[in-house]
Q: What sequence folds into this?
């Protein structure tokens, strides 16, 4: 057991999966869920993600040894700030947010003395949502990125790292700025591209689409509210990634218009080599 009492604020897909894993592996004595809808909290209880639930944020966090912010990024900042006055001395605050600078910059200077804040981002998920879509095995062999803040104590960092490793993750420490740049490229931009592809295709075209299109656009089925917040809270990095992507498309278009068969093949072959070097399946 790493923590006696854990409170998950927002036991949706990621929060619920975390709760399931904590309970399944005996890493917490009691897991409490805090949410805004009783129906969602009941779903989390039925799914085995939490032991008890409350709609009252203060009640949920006041006695917790670990508080996990597992809502959308903007909501995590708002609820994190609301939680701070009620966190007990010696407790740890963490999150699972997909953007870091926005959240850390908003929280770290407000953390009360005696409380530690370690930011985390498990690189696992699904286009599905809700506690019923959760799984205690969601994090197996996934990478969890850990970011220190001004309010991170060494022992707290080690506890959070140990927790994610026990849940099944590999861990890597990364600073907030680098995190947001890389995630814009490998996660946030791909989601926007998938969404734009779906919006591009007509209804008739959707009826003809086969496995390749389905696989390429799977992530477009993700929760729009969550992805709206991810985009807005990582605006600068995502904008740069979009501009770079447009540049690559324009280069491809130019070669296409010039009937540059060799140039087109070189671009495609370069992408294939790069991807095949990392992925074998």
A:
């Amino acid at each position: 057991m790493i923590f006696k009492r854990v409170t998950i604020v927002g036991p949706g897909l990621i929060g619920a999966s975390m709760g399931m894993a904590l309970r399944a592996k005996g890493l917490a004595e009691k897991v409490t869920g805090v949410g805004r809808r009783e129906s969602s909290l009941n779903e989390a209880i039925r799914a085995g993600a939490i032991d008890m639930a409350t709609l009252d944020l203060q009640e949920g966090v006041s006695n917790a040894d670990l508080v996990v912010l597992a809502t959308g990024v903007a909501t995590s900042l708002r609820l994190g700030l609301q939680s701070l006055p009620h966190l007990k001395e010696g407790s740890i605050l963490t999150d699972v947010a997909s953007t870091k600078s926005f959240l850390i910059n908003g929280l770290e200077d407000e953390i009360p003395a005696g409380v530690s804040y370690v930011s985390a981002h498990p690189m696992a998920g699904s286009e599905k949502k809700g506690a019923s879509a959760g799984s205690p095995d969601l994090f197996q062999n996934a990478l969890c990125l850990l970011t220190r803040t001004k309010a991170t104590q060494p022992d707290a960092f080690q506890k959070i790292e140990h927790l994610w490793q026990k849940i099944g993750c590999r861990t890597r420490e990364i600073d907030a700025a680098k995190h947001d740049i890389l995630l814009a490229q490998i996660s946030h931009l791909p989601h926007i591209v998938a969404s734009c592809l779906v919006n591009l295709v007509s209804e008739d075209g959707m009826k003809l689409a086969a496995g390749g299109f389905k696989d390429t656009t799977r992530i477009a089925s993700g929760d729009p509210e969550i992805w709206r917040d991810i985009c807005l809270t990582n605006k600068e990095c995502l904008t740069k990634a979009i501009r770079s992507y447009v540049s690559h498309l324009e280069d491809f278009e130019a070669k296409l218009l010039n009937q540059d068969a060799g140039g087109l093949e070189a671009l495609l072959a370069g992408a294939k080599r790069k991807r095949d070097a990392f992925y074998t399946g």
